[in-house]
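>> received
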Amino acid sequence: MPRSLTDELRASPPGLHGEGDEYWGLAWAALRWLEETVTSGMATLETGAGSSTIVFAAAGADHEAVTPDPAEEARIREECDRRGIDSSSVHFRIGASHEVLAALEPRPLDLVLVDGAHGFPYPILDWWYLAPRLRVGGVMLLDDAYMPPVGALVDALRAQPAWEVAAAIGHRTVAVRKVSEELPPFDWGGERVGGRMSFRYLPGARRAAASLVHRAFTTDLGLRAVALARRNTALRWRKRG
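>> returned
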């Protein structure tokens, strides 16, 4: 039985990154998922480039890869040639994703991979620029979802009606599906984005006091007290007027 492209890449990972002597890439489970999911003619885009780009090329996707390193394009195309893969349907966009995506001519996309810069807020910016371009029903892969900047994005999308978590692929990658055209809510509705609510940015004593006050005034009784205080303040201002 012939080996899959994922098996071949796993058996001999190519040096695509660094100085051409390093290999970074999707977890093998996610790479295999891509190989089994992407089909010829699909409109796809990824932030970052590497073995996933080779898989998109082999599938014949109409693909864009956004990378700040122009040397990666040469290495990936050379690796495709070495493996007999036509990479002519792959278009590299060289630059930082938050700059490239903002200026890139938009087109409807079927599948997106977010695997570029992982520091805050870059995964969120990638999502922000790409979400309107993804078709309803399209899938976005969020790699390295265990990292807090990516995990916060997963938390936010889980709580939004326009998105659903479709699958966890391996232990590092999450597939989210766009189910409708809808902007995120403008106000925070209590969603656990990045964990529980916290006052950890305050010094210790103030942190404890703020936590107690917040807990007191977010109970039903506390909320009624706040509403009553607001009404009384409004009445006083009216009398003064």
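>> The chain has a mean pLDDT of 88.
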